[in-house]
Amino acid sequence: MTKQGTFTLKKSLIAMTFAAASSVANAGEVEVLHWWTSGGEAKSAAVLKQMLEQQGDSWKDFAVAGGGGESAMTVLKTRAVSGNPPSAAQIKGHDIQEWGDLGFLTSLDDVAEAGQWDKVLPAVVTKVMKYNGDYVAVPVNVHRVNWLWANPEVFKKAGATVPANMDEFFAAAEKIKAAGFVPLAHGGQPWQDATLFEAVALDILGSQDYNKAFVDLDMDVLSGPKMVETFATFQRMHDYIDENSPGRDWNIATSMVINGEAAMQIMGDWAKGEFAAAGKQPGKDYICAPAPGTANQFTFNIDSFAFFKLSNKDNEEAQKHLAKTILNKDFQEVFNLNKGSIPVRLDMNMDKFDKCALDSMATFKASAQTGDLVPSMAHGLATTSYVQGAVYDVVTNFFNDTSADPKQAAQQLARAVKAAM
Ligand code: BGC
Q1: Is 69 in the pocket of ligand 1 (CB under 6 A)?
Q2: Average pLDDT, stretch 235-242?
Q3: Structural domains of the chain, count
Q4: Are 138 and 326 a contacting pair, CB within 8 Å?
Q5: Is 375 left (phi over 0), alpha (psi -120 to 50) or beta?
Q6: Which pTM value belongs to this model?
Q7: How far does the centroid of ligand 1 lie from the alpha carbon of residue 61, in Å?
Q8: For ligand 1, what atom is nearest to the CA of residue 380?
Q9: In this predicted model, what pLDDT tens digit does every residue of 328-381 receive, in sequence order?
Q10: What CATH number corresponds to the domain at position 388?
Q11: Residue 115 C-alpha to ligand 1 middle, in angstroms?
């Protein structure tokens, strides 16, 4: 090596050492609140932690168990009110606006501009992530909620076929029950009741009236004849769940389908994360089909992290690394393969994704054109947490009282929503 070469090498080594030292010196910590604790969820969260740590920052895990995130939101409120919020929290939909109103969230516009978020994300998503025109949250994925997960072996043993509409659902459920299996795996928790209810509502109301009910909060639709029919159909489903349903976690319900105890579950595609974590193959070990009667419709649920104002500069930097990483293409791929959702970026290569994910992506894009892309009420995308809570109460009370009157329930629903508006 020439003298000049040795000198250049030395110089770059010194520069590298300095850069490494300074990146460690600047490395910050992000504390991240989430509720991803099931098998598939934990695997997905681990990808984010790993990618952040690779950049020299540290991850302080703040996991609060409880599907749907109700417990996580309660814990978050306590922490924020005591003046000690985490760096980022899994906050979705309308809740982002509520936290923005309270003045807790920080702007991510510099990261968003550098990453051209406005360009790579669908408008239906960016709208939700901005508060007063500034990005304050980063989307992780798009979950489709109106899915049905089926065990083909159980269907075969019962001589039933995977249902495409409600009539077929009840016909199949009868056969499966007679064959000694649980037709519908369900966890009796308010958010799961609401998830099932919203799938039935989507079919019976249709997309337009679904939006009128849960987005516009139209009293006539909320208390109208189609809502009565929705409650009546939802009530019929109760005959096909087992008596151990109350309080059961959603992933336990999924495992009943995985191990052949139950035939079906109506649940968002985070359930696919459980099948994947159990090493199951779609099309072979399990079937994904649209929830009965909702083939061309898409109830969307977008997971996102909202970012809180911090006072420590290094932690602020680390926060930006996290925001950037979430929309990194490699992260989007690995995370969503584990989580069961589809990437939120529109410019992704989908080669590694399975048929369920490809169907989801195709329906996501097509439904955006036809008006059949609707926000999930049960998962906080359609309305405020107050209205959502009111719907949960009416729906859960109704479902737990098998003699409740569907007509009265629809009227109660309208009254409860009105009081929460
Ligand atoms: C979240 C999913 C999560 C599911 C069950 C939903 O509200 O969006 O990410 O997997 O709850 O915990």
Answers
A1: yes
A2: 98
A3: 2
A4: yes
A5: beta
A6: 0.93
A7: 17
A8: 7
A9: 999 999 999 999 999 999 899 999 999 999 999 999 999 999 999 999 999 999
A10: 3.40.190.10
A11: 26
